[in-house]
Amino acid sequence: MKVLKFGGTSVGSAERMRALPQLIVDGTPKIVVLSAMSGTTNALVEITILARQGKTVDALAKIDLLAKKYDEVIAQLFDNQQNRNTAKEKIEPIFALLRELVQGVPTLVQERTILAQGELMSTMLQHLYLLEIGVNAVLLPALDFMRKDITDEPDIYFIGEILKRDLARYSDCQLFITQGYICRNHKGEIDNLKRGGSDYTASIIGAAIGAEEVQIWTDIDGFHNNDPRVVQNTHSIPKLSFDEASELAYFGAKILHPTCVLPVQEAGIPLIIKNTMNPKAEGTRISNETDNDGTIKAVAAKDNITAVKIKSGRMLLAYGFLRKIFDVFEEYHTAIDMVSTSEVAVSLTIDDDKHLQDIERVLQNFGTVEIDRNMTIVSVVGYKISESNGIAGRVFNTIQNIPIRMISFGGSRHNIGFLVKHEDKKATLEALNNLFKK
Ligand code: ADP
Ligand code: ASP
Ligand code: MG
Question: Could you tell which of 218, 235, 247 is best to mutate to test the pocket of ligand 1, judged by most ligand atoms within 8 Å of the CB?
Answer without folding.
Answer: 218
